[in-house]
Amino acid sequence: MLRRFCCFNTSSSLNSCSKKPLVFLGSPQVSTTVLDALFNASTAPDSLFQKVVPSPVAQYALDKGFSSDLIFTPEKAGEDMFLSNLKALQPELCITAAYGNILPRKFLNIPPLGTVNIHPSLLPLYHGAAPVQRALQNGIKETGVSLAFTVRALDTGPVIACERVEAPDLLEFLFSKG
């Protein structure tokens, strides 16, 4: 689903998408699944930039050979120094997965293609934190993963695509579908 989105609104075909700079944001271990998919995708940019507090994602990026000067760890995504560094990277797109923070407007205005979030539920159902856990607690038989534009309110942006899966598939599987 993410590979299709990366090629969305370009004049290129799916097989010949031009590489664009993007930024990845994630915190817990499950986010590394998405970063790994981006790293291995044929449409992945030459460099991925990741911003989190020190986390498994930061370590994963280092292990994959990302330069430490491309791994930002601000306390908040609205910090002036971070926003200045982000602007200097000129990302076309930012991607979040299990990031858990509402991004400030100053951040959201930087990438021309916007910021998209990979969310493990069929939005608008189970928006916010712990969507898989809440779905399983409610005994639903079908859930999924959504790709949606990020706006100032949590998980309320326009949904770009979604993919349904039968419960009780787990969080890692849903993020791998992104």
TrEMBL record:
Ranges where the Formyl transferase N-terminal domain occurs: 53-166
UniProt-listed Pfam families: Formyl_trans_N
Top-level taxon of origin: Eukaryota
GO CC annotation, single: mitochondrion
EC code(s) of this entry: 2.1.2.9
CDD domains recorded: FMT_core_Met-tRNA-FMT_N
Gene Ontology molecular-function annotations: methionyl-tRNA formyltransferase activity
Designated name of the protein: methionyl-tRNA formyltransferase
